[in-house]
């Protein structure tokens, strides 16, 4: 938040952007450009990880299992569909609620990064075993493009359910 907060409020997550929009914290005309930028950033970020990882000594290959993709189903080593739905909706709602609360006009800008960062860390500790943690549709898209397979087939869920969670968090 310290580095780009003054530019965009530091919401690099479409779910947070939707929450901000629902609370009328950003203008409608800014939503699409923010989300496009977030998706581009996620794809570029995943691409950088792919390039760096390709230089590893082991025989790395980006696939649906080992590229931080989001999945559900025991066949992929994760929980089933409904636990994923609950985790993504509830945990995204919590993330958006904290982001909206931490960025109120009367809040202290010096602790926003800590509040959101600790929340996101706890969310990951809870949900990595469930579905590898999305709560950010852009991040899910970026890794799915490189992982392919089931990650692309299941991507819709990691867009839809975090957006539903964003709505609940804004409420």
List the main descriptive attributes of the protein structure presented here.
mainly alpha, 171 residues
- State the end-to-end CA separation: 23 Å
What ranges have pLDDT less than 50 throughout 5 or more consecutive residues? none
Beta strands, count? 0
Q: What would you call the structural class?
A: mainly alpha
DSSP helical segment count: 8
Outline the biggest β-sheet.
Answer: none
- In round numbers, the mean pLDDT is 89
Shape: globular
Strand content: under 5%
- How big is the Rg? 16 Å
Q: What is the succession of H and E elements?
A: HHHHHHHH
Helicity range: 55-70%
Describe it for me?
- There is one protein chain.
- 65% of the residues lie in helices and 0% in strands.
- It is globular.
- It is mainly α.
- The mean pLDDT is 89.
- Helix 2 runs antiparallel to helix 3 (28-54), helix 3 packs parallel to helix 6 (137-147) and helix 4 packs antiparallel against helix 5.
- The protein is built from 8 helices and no strands.
